[in-house]
Specification:
heterodimer; A: 416 residues; alpha/beta; Aspartate Aminotransferase, domain 1; Aspartate Aminotransferase, domain 2; 4-stranded antiparallel sheet; 17 strands; B: 147 residues; Sufe protein. Chain: A; 4-stranded mixed sheet; 38% helix; globular
């Protein structure tokens, strides 16, 4: 074995080969080949995911954790195998720290209702940022309403970056919990998570990270980050909808009461006393989404087979290219110009409302998101009702960027 | 699906130069319309003379369809009484939602909105101002939301 092995650079992504894995990309929209630039809303699924789900449904389905019969055992093995796959994907210590939920929104609500609400009181503070998706705002407002604690919001600057100094000033002895996005869905800003978590921990606050927009674009190691809770959705990671993950440090999860009662989350039930199941099942009342979990595990296999570093480099290349191309258009303004961004390019076009832009781009087969991106406070900060948002995934190409630019010229033509 | 059907010259003109834009100071009725999906906001104010809309203005920010529809509506309803406005709303509604209906001959410039029906997600943009007018005339809530 060679004594001196230089680190092997992963092979760059071959987007044309990747595209062959996604049958939906062959769709024709309004007479044009589909140009799918809305992966930040929901990514498409590769055949590997579709087949894994079909395989489970065809050969392995029964209810989990219940029967002694063969199929129930197969379903349980598939479901618990998926949990182990997730544990490895984010490098959690134990599968007891991996709770399957419906998605990021449910993950945040679980922590809000089972961690924050029972223990926070008037005078306590929850700190979020001005970049957050509604799913990382409203659950905390509900906790504040129920418990009397207050919500503090750290500001952003005109580039769409967190004002870290202001954030640090808002941290204090009253701060019980910090809830932040890893990557902003509306602007693409990557937050300085390690600094945020270290500072929060120094003040004794726990940290929840909304990782919905991060896991498809970077290798996330929850232990290296030091996150107390980290939650994300399968469908933005090329997996099925209706399933997601809440990671929580075991001692925190163990200290929390269940948030929904029912089957599977109990050990014994009598009318006098019920004992709850162990982690992670304590938080999974009712029959879970087994085929979703299997699909999510297959999606994790898929992105790791491409290499998350290769995916990230590919997307950064496209984001850089699209940013440069749009910056050349005098009537286009890019919203969110943070130094560190991932996948997302939000913009407006002078004289063309984003909603009209969305329709015109769609007529050209180009799918972008238009609207407030469930981040109304971000739109208010920039004084905009809405933006158009292009977002890039592993299957996008330079040709997709060119189609976007051509469609923008078309939009200008309609309105001139 | 043809973009030219949606963005007709009349629509583009009324988007670029909205008629009756602004606010009536001593209004007899006011209402606000909101489409949370796209962030469109629209405020209507009306001055009545008995049953008749004597003056009407609108302000707000919206897409071309919602702006042009509001502008066209203000021109169409000025001078009409409540009953005639209700009748007109019915015809516009049919125009926006019924696929094969030929535009009613009495719709005038409003017929330019017929292309919207080929774009189902945009129908709310065109109808928001009419629902808001209903509210400003005292039928229903003072704030209208499409969602």
């Amino acid at each position: 074995m060679a004594a001196n092995v230089s680190p092997v650079r992963p092979a760059p992504l071959d987007a044309q080969r990747v595209r062959a894995d996604f049958p939906i990309l062959a769709t024709t929209v309004n007479g044009h080949p589909l140009v799918y630039l809305d992966s930040a809303a929901s990514a498409q699924r590769p055949l590997q995911v579709l087949r894994a789900v079909e395989e489970y449904e065809t050969h392995s389905h029964a209810n989990v954790h219940r029967g002694v019969h063969a199929l129930s055992q197969a379903a349980t093995a598939a479901y618990e195998g998926a949990r182990e796959r997730v544990r490895r994907f984010i490098n959690a210590r134990s599968t007891r720290e991996i709770i399957f939920v419906r998605g990021t929104t449910e993950g945040i609500n679980l922590v809000a209702q089972a961690y924050a609400r029972p223990r926070f009181k008037a005078g306590d503070e929850i700190l979020i940022t001005a970049l957050e998706h509604h799913a990382n705002i409203v659950p905390w407002q509900m906790v504040c309403e129920a418990s009397g604690c207050s919500l503090r919001v750290a500001p952003i600057n005109r580039r769409g970056e967190l004002e870290l100094e202001e954030f640090l000033k808002l941290l204090g002895p009253r701060t019980r919990l910090v809830a932040v996005a890893h990557v902003s869905n509306a602007l693409g800003t990557v937050l300085p998570l390690k600094r945020i978590i270290e500072a929060a921990h120094a003040h004794g606050a726990v940290v929840l990270v909304d990782g919905a927009q991060a896991v498809p674009h970077a290798h996330v190691d929850v232990r290296a980050l030091g996150a107390d809770f980290y939650t994300f959705s399968s469908h933005k990671l090329y997996g099925p909808t209706g399933i997601g993950v809440l990671y929580g440090r075991e001692e925190l999860l163990a200290s929390m009461p269940p948030w929904q009662g029912g089957g599977d989350m109990i050990l014994t039930v009598s009318f006098e006393k019920t004992t709850y199941n162990e982690l992670p099942w304590k938080f999974e009342a009712g029959t879970p989404n087994m085929s979703g979990a299997v699909g999510l595990a297959a999606a994790m296999d898929y992105v790791e087979s491409l290499g998350l570093t290769a995916i990230a480099e590919h997307e950064q290349h496209l984001l850089g290219l699209a940013t440069a191309e749009l910056a050349r258009l005098p009537d286009v303004e890019i919203i969110g110009t943070a130094a560190h961004k991932a996948s997302v390019l939000s913009f407006t076009m002078k004289g063309v409302h984003p909603h009209d832009l969305g329709t015109i781009l769609d007529a050209e087969g180009v799918a972008v998101r238009t609207g407030h991106h469930c981040a109304m406070p971000v739109m208010t900060f920039f004084g905009l009702p809405a933006t158009a948002r292009a977002s890039f995934g592993c299957y996008n190409t330079e040709g997709d960027v060119a189609s976007l630019v051509a469609a923008l010229h078309k939009a200008r033509g309609v309105f001139s | 699906m043809d973009l030219k059907d949606l963005y007709r010259d009349v629509i583009l003109d009324h988007n670029r130069h909205p008629r009756n834009f602004g606010r009536i100071e001593a209004a007899d009725g006011e209402a606000e319309g909101h489409n949370p999906l796209c962030g469109d906001r629209l405020r209507l104010s009306v001055r009545m003379n008995g049953e008749r809309v004597e003056d009407i203005r609108f302000e707000g920010k919206g897409c071309a369809i919602s702006t042009a529809s509001a502008s066209l509506m203000t021109e169409a309803v000025k001078g009409k009484d409540r009953a005639a406005i209700q009748e007109l709303f019915g015809k516009v509604h049919a125009l926006l939602t019924h696929h094969d209906a030929a535009p009613d001959a009495t719709l005038g410039k409003l017929a330019a909105l017929s292309g919207v029906r080929e774009f189902p997600v945009r129908v709310k943009c065109a109808s928001l101002c009419w629902h808001t007018l209903n509210a400003a005339l005292g039928h229903g809530a003072a704030t209208i939301s499409t969602e």
